[in-house]
Amino acid sequence: MGRRYNSVMDDLLIPVGSDDHSRGPETAAVTLLEYGDYECPYCGRAFPILKQLRETLGDELRIVYRHFPQNNVHPHASVAAQAAEAAGAQGKFWPMHDLLFEHQDELADVMKYAIKLELELYRFEADLSSERFADKIRFDHEGGVRNGVRKTPTFFINGKLYNGPLEYEALLREIKTASEIAHRSR
User: Fold this and answer.
1) pLDDT in tens, 1-18
2) Nearest CA to 155 among 45, 77, 73?
3) Helical spans, DSSP H, in the chain
4) Three-state SS for 65?
5) What is the pTM (predicted TM-score) of this model?
6) Is 40 exposed, middle or buried (0-12, 13-18, 19+ CB in 10 A)?
7) Domains and CATH numbers, the chain
8) How far apart are CA 163 and CA 155, in angstroms?
9) Is 114:124 a contact under the CB 8 Å cutoff?
10) Which of 45, 50, 66 has its CA nearest to residue 145?
């Protein structure tokens, strides 16, 4: 059986909204929200696990990503987050997100990923240099701090903090438990 979801301190304070980047249907029984950092090795480890969960659970799972760059230890994290947002402005947030995690050790030059995604380069470069998305990234980060996020990745499953191990089976078990609860309450 999964862990109990009853601690008020574990509740997500800023609910998922239309400004969040999500994969999967809004009607999914379970929403897994990640506060992540593109340069964090633990987020890099989580990336294939989340991909496998999406493949296993299909429309039962919606994944939401919020930026939590830890600039003090990851010098390219903020630029990578801005690159994801700039790609998102051209309808390619998730492809950029995936490329950034797939090439986590090569974040110094995000232009090559914009080229690979066939983005409008002038617009992409202008968005990066103007820091057009800095407020969005800061809002995500500050929301994470308000939600008690101290490290990445931090996950919330249906608005409840997940404290378990960063392993496929453990996350799958928690998601299935959350899904059962969601289906019973419908």
Assistant:
1) 343 333 334 788 889 999
2) 45
3) 41-57, 77-88, 93-102, 111-116, 121-130, 134-146, 168-184
4) strand
5) 0.92
6) buried
7) 30-184 (3.40.30.10)
8) 8
9) yes
10) 66
